[in-house]
Amino acid sequence: MKPIETKKDYQNYVDKKTPNSPIGLNILKAFIVGGIICLIGQFISDALKNMGLEQEAASAITSISLVFAGIFLTAINVYSKIGKFAGAGSIVPITGFANSIASPAIEFKSEGLVLGVGAKLFQVAGPVLVYGIGSSIIVGILYFLFAGKVS
Amino acid sequence: MANKKIGKQTVKLSNPVSISTTYSIVGKKEGDGPLAKYFDIILEDEYWGEKTWEKTEAKIVKECVAGCLGKEKLSNDDIDFMLSGDLLNQCVSSSFGIRERQIPYYGLFGACSTFVEALSLGSMLIDGQMADNVLCSTSSHFCSAEKQFRFPLELGNQRPPSSQWTVTGSGTALLKATGQGPFITHITTGKIVDMGIKDANNMGAAMAPAAVDTLYQHFQDTSRGPSYYDLILTGDLGYIGKEITIELLESRGYNVKNNYNDCGVLMFNKEKQDTHSGGSGCACCATTFCGYIFNQLQAKKLKRVLLCATGALMSPTTAQQNESILGIAHAVSIEI
To answer: How far apart are CA B211 and CA B309, in angstroms?
Structure first.
């Protein structure tokens, strides 16, 4: 091997030396676990509707149940293990959102309720909220302007 | 007139400094690793009876210093200087760990190169006849480091194969002007090396060029080849950084394949302990040396060791501002 002189050559060399994550396997695991979480959600929703609830109420209770499950599993140190196995499969569903809020709450409890939990609660979920809510407002304005009416 | 300096970056001590005693404390995971039997204390959990990880890390420093002094039956008054540092903001583990001890103290920051930085400066203080007994210490804690540099522990995410595992623990060494050795004979102080790596999940690759730079300069300055040493040991480059170091040194004319290793590689069982590219953190080099290597030197199984601790000089803010990770490496020759 010739001595490496430039940063660019070194970056290329490091890229070759660094093993990649097993993308195919990770996608498969994410698909299966993510699918199972959604299946559980669908099951809760259908069961509630069978019991006579309206779609809207059933959806709300399903979300609440899954968020609770996500936080509960985070608190008992299980969600991080699921996340390590499933990757995006457990990050994307609403349980992952719950995990991203519960985990900083646990972590920063030691800095107190105001500057710890209060300030850091949205450390991970903050960007998702900012850009999620922001983009839905933009889409809402566009819908109002071009699709005509607000029902 | 600097008559102890040889070559560009190396100091040859006129009176080699004796490493009199070492003490090491590690966490549970390190205690499950292959070096377990060499550590003085292995913790059973990540808290050790404290309420926060930061308090735990300070307690680890406190007890490690106490253990080191206890082995030699020395008191605070016997120590001329203490040199210590860690990864947490403003080096709080070190300062809170020794706040009750009335020992003149210098806080150091060299990231994970801190242990050898402390040995270097401590040796120079002694060889310069400014001290007889100097304590050198450093620490890191997996949980407090993750909290400061990455994500909350309970967040469910994946680590890439190149990521490393911060070692929980502390290593303390007592340097003396006279003694039985092993002795620190040469010190090569590293320069900041920036090869443009920005991936915080690939610290080994970011720091390896610094290790190569310092090792190369050490061989040049001392006219010693790698074969002079029984073991050349870097601090926390891990598997990827180790491989890069071997290849880059070979490209610059030095073959270290047979007698080179890395503390991050030695610390864990890669397959069984799920530590990806190996151990990292200030304590990686410090506990490996204070536990395993010091034992081997005393047993005369190793006679000449070149210890080269590697550090990544960066903060979460510089990383977010898209700056590269700066590497540094300091080396000391330890001989019996």
So the answer is: 8
**Using the beta-carbon criterion (under 8 Å), do A103 and B202 form an inter-chain contact?**
no
How close B277 gets to chain A, by Cα (Å)? Answer: 10
Rounded to whole angstroms, the Cα distance separating B278 from A81 reads: 20
For tokens 């864990």, the residue is: B268
Q: Do A103 and B152 touch (CB under 8 A)?
A: yes
pLDDT per residue over B178-200, tens digit each?
Answer: 999 899 999 999 999 999 999 99
Residues of A in contact with B157 (CB under 8 A): 83-84, 87, 91
| Domains, in order of start, for chain B | 17-176 (3.40.47.40), 183-335 (3.40.47.40)
Q: Tell me the shortest Cα–Cα distance from A87 to chain B, in angstroms.
A: 6
**Residue B182: cis peptide before it, omega within 30 degrees of 0:** yes
Mutate: best of A9, A17, A84, A108, partner B, most B CBs <10 A: A17
* Separation of alpha carbons B225 and B130, rounded Å: 32
Which pLDDT value is given to residue B61?
A: 98
Digit-coded pLDDT (tens) for B194-230 = 999 999 999 999 999 999 999 999 999 999 999 999 9
Nearest residue of A to residue B146 by CA position? Answer: A107
* Cα torsion through B202, B205, B208, B210, rounded to 10: -80
Residues 6+ apart with CB under 8 A from B158: A21, A26, A83, A84, A87
Write out chain B residues lying below 8 Å of A77, CB-based.
154
Structure pTM?
0.94
